[in-house]
């Protein structure tokens, strides 16, 4: 999405970057250091096509033990598909956005303070690129409390992310 916005912001009416990769690129060393955390390592191994047990997936950075139902854990484990290793590294380490962003479309950067992949710091870097602020309804940074990376799958609090998206869309018709 960020790559598309960069070149086509005049065609886009608005954008919501939902737990999105850091706009100015992630630090390779920080990511390698982050893989020492079991939940990130498990997620990476699953994303690169290796099987993980339902229990490992529940504890992974995808869900951070937020999903408790065995039925849901099994369902989501089966839904997770292999990611291209090349695409993963290109999307994380090459900048999606170079230079100053000068588009004027409504943009919401939304994520969670508990996201193991893209921390609040990452969200704030992305928001800075797109001139988004917490109290702005048109260019908004929204950091939700205590949701996993896959916020829309959070068993108890998924409605919080859905509500934030809906409010942003309603305010920017």
Architecture overview:
- With 173 residues, the protein is mostly helical.
- It has a single domain (2-171), classed as Rossmann fold (3-Layer(aba) Sandwich), CATH 3.40.50.1820.
- The chain has 8 helices and 3 strands, in the order αβαααααβαβα.
- The chain has a 3-stranded parallel beta sheet with strand order 1-2-3, sandwiched between helices.
- The protein is globular.
- It starts with a helix and ends with a helix.
Q: How many individual domains?
A: 1
Kindly report the name of the CATH homologous superfamily: Alpha/Beta hydrolase fold, catalytic domain
Looking across the biggest beta sheet, what order are the strands in? Answer: 1-2-3
- Specify the biggest β-sheet: 3 strands, parallel
What is the terminal separation in angstroms? 19 Å
Strand content: 5-15%
The CATH architecture name reads 3-Layer(aba) Sandwich
Return the CATH topology: Rossmann fold
Characteristic key phrases:
mainly alpha, 173 residues, Rossmann fold, 42% helix, 8 helices, globular, three-stranded parallel β-sheet, 9% strand
Ordered list of secondary-structure elements with their pairings:
Blueprint lengths: L1 H7 L6 E4 L9 H7 L3 H10 L6 H6 L10 H10 L5 H9 L13 E6 L7 H10 L9 E6 L13 H14 L2
Parallel strand pairs: 1-2, 2-3
In short, what is this structure?
The radius of gyration is 16 Å and the shape is globular. α7 links the parallel β2 (107-112) and β3.
């Amino acid at each position: 999405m960020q790559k598309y916005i960069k070149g086509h912001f005049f065609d886009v009416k608005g954008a919501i970057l939902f737990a999105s990769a850091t706009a100015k690129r992630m630090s390779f060393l920080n990511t390698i250091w982050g893989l020492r955390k079991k939940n990130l390592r498990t997620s990476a191994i699953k994303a690169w096509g290796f099987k993980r047990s339902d229990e490992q997936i529940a504890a992974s950075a995808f869900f951070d033990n937020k999903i408790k139902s065995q039925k849901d854990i099994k369902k989501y484990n089966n839904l997770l598909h292999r990611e291209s290793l090349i695409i993963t590294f290109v999307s994380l380490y090459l900048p999606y956005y170079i230079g100053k962003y000068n588009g004027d479309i409504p943009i919401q950067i939304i994520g969670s303070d508990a996201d193991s992949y893209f921390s609040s710091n990452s969200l704030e870097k992305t928001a800075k690129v797109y001139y988004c602020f917490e109290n702005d309804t048109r260019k908004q940074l929204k950091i939700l409390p205590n949701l996993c990376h896959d916020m829309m799958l959070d068993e108890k609090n998924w409605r919080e992310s859905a509500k934030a998206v809906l409010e942003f869309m309603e305010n920017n018709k």
